[in-house]
Amino acid sequence: MSCYSSSQPDIIRTKMLAADRELTYRGFKKTAQDVYRGVSFTHGENWKVMRRFTITTLRDFGMGKSTIEDKIAEESVHLNDYFATFKGKQFDDLIILNASVANIIVAIVLGHRLSYEDPQFKRLLDLVNENIQLLGTQMVSLYNIYPILGFLPGSHKTIVKNVEELLEFITQTFVKHLQDLDANDQRSFIDAFLVRQKEEAENSQRYFHNDNLKAVVRNLFSAGMETTSSTLSWGLLLMVQYPKIQEKVQDEISRVVGSAQPLYSHRGQMPFTYAVIHEIQRYADILPLSLGHETSTDVTFKGYSIPKGTYIIPLLSSVLRYKTQFEKPDEFYPNHFLDAKGNFIKKDAFMPFSAGRRACAGENLARMELFIFFTSLLQKFTFRLPPRVSHVDLTSVVGFTIMPKKQMICAVPRF
After folding, report:
1. 302 contacts: CB under 8 Å, gap ≥ 6
2. What pLDDT score was predicted for residue 65?
């Protein structure tokens, strides 16, 4: 994996990323200790404890198991039903994909799904989406280089306001959970955290406090919703762009699954579909810069000395488009993940979830979501351009992640 910099071609040495700082809210005067909570942007012992608890609890609530697969399959039915309401007419798929993917996180965090029409749910999605987009703006980048400019008006202040509203929603939610908490009947991630909080109330090295709970839940919503839904949206656009590939995927689904509900276990019998999903992730390159890291010791990398405590940014694009690993790195080419006999093959350079100890904690969940949602949609619909639209616009919108440009598509029922 490579790193890069404006001063040295392979290294970034910067004080902070927009995401890493998380825009120090409440007047931009919180200390680093206050800001570094949760899993995504924290470090040291707090990171170890929160990551271990998060992964263990996600597994307890079904991540990688049939229980969560059932939730994803159920949600895919709701998604298909929603797509069907348009009766083949054009619509924007990204918002509803956000809601469907977010509902899996909601089911884990709160213990139940929410209606797509729930106004509070819609507002929650809007807050997360707006912040993801604003994190890529020039004002946010400028603020992170020169925090003294925080008093100026701009998108950085909108992010602050959105974060405070999101934290208030999370606070109200876990307060409700606390009122009827039953240690013997833990129904959600929040329940499990609050039970652990009570158990460790006397521990002087407390990590299970409310600030960490709010940060972890916010991390789960942000990381578990936008990247997967954007990948699915890219996937549908690419199926429109390459109708022969779409048809081949549908043929494989019909042959292996038929009219039954697609399951994650089907992936072994569907090498072409599985390869297409991997190629969508590779080609879309949703999170090209990964998250900020910090060197824990002095490091020498490609002849450059990187001191301990330097912030670096892993450049995932450098491996996802590595010419020695991918025959046509700049093209959408599912054969990158197929051998000469059409069998699926793994690639060491395929790391959209990053790598190492800080790789995405929800990787297994995201893999399952992508496969079930994608195959369920292509089982039920053929995706096309709206009438009088001549081409697919594969232009990206740069925020904290790389999202497809907003555009209409048609989901034409297959049966």
Report:
1. 10
2. 58
